[in-house]
Amino acid sequence: MLYKSFLNLQLSALGFGNMRLPTLESGGIDTSKADDMIAYAFEHGVNYYDTAYGYHEGESENFIGKSLSRYPRDSWCLASKFPGYQKRQNWDPEEVFEEQLKKCGIDYFDFYLLHNVCEQTVDTYLNPKWGIMDYLVGQKKLGRIRYFGISTHAGLETFLKFIEKYGEQIDFCQIQLNALDWTLQNAQYKYEFLTKHNIPIWVMEPVRGGGVSHHSQKKMN
Q1: Which is it for strands 77-82 and 109-117: parallel, antiparallel or unpaired?
Q2: What's the total number of domains in the chain?
Q3: In DSSP terms, which residues pair with 16 in a beta bridge?
Q4: Which of 108, 120, 141, 181 is least surrounded by Cβ atoms within 10 Å, i.e. has the fewest?
């Protein structure tokens, strides 16, 4: 496994996402198969695992927390995300965050992100009425979030709107970066902007869930 330096950590260059775990015909996560996948990844050097509040209808956090509990807590890093994309009448960031910690069975998140800062969510995240940013920045100060970041599929205007307001509060930014989204999601501009401002980049969808490889195969044929 190759490792990348991030502050005081050595993170595996390849992380394990928990959005597309194997499922049972009757529904739900096939925990037996998924546990085997986690074990294989861990034994081959993967130490970064990514989940989110909404993955697998809310069950991904339960699964990955239980699966990783087989290993010493300091041997892996877990990332999860605040679900600001959901349609709600009101937001209680404390309630959501405490629920996530409980589901994962941990006392702190190594990495925690605002999930998909975009045109549909940015006002929720920036609204002082809900205090989402203030609360999460506070949790970082308390050590319950080690590193705070965002994931984004936003257009450039929204992307810059958020970064200009809260760029100093985030430790990293996760963008969709692959051969197609280099232009389709303006990943090139985001990459160059973040690099210029010394904000570390996390890559999601490097092969677009397999879509890039399928596209390449069609082009070859």
Answers
A1: parallel
A2: 1
A3: 49
A4: 141
